Amino acid sequence: MPHAVIDITSQVCPMTWVRVKLKLESLDTGDTLEVLLKGDEPLRNLPRNAADDGHVVKSLDTLGDGTSKLVLEVRHG
């Protein structure tokens, strides 16, 4: 099960979702994507957007420096 990482801590919405969506599309079903993000808006929107697209939210953790780590399992329709 390959694991990919994307750091979008310097991005703002809606580019945060655009970058994550493009990365998800490049991965295979069953792969995991670790997303490093920062800010309230991406924290609220990214898990919902990923789930709405059919991907599985495996975990969402705060790292203590204002950064959060979202782990998604890739699912393609």
Written description of the protein model:
The chain has 77 residues and is of the alpha+beta class. It has a domain at 13-25 and 35-54. It is built from 2 helices and 4 strands, in the order βαβαββ. It has helices at 15-26, 40-52, and strands at residues 3-7, 32-38, 56-62, 67-73. Strands 1-2-4-3 form a 4-stranded mixed sheet, covered by helices on one side. Helix 1 (15-26) packs parallel to helix 2 (40-52). 19% of the residues are buried. The mean pLDDT is 92.
Proportion of residues in extended strands:
25-35%
Structural class of the secondary structure composition?
alpha+beta
Please state how the strands of the largest beta sheet are arranged side by side. 1-2-4-3
Number of strands: 4
Element string (H = helix, E = strand): EHEHEE
Radius of gyration computed on alpha carbons: 11 Å
- Largest sheet data: 4 strands, mixed
* Poorly predicted segments: none
Annotation field: number of helices: 2
N-end to C-end Cα span: 18 Å
- Kindly state the percentage of residues in helix: 25-40%
Q: What's the quaternary structure here?
A: single chain
Instruction: Average the pLDDT over all residues and give the rounded result.
Output: 92
Gross morphology is: globular
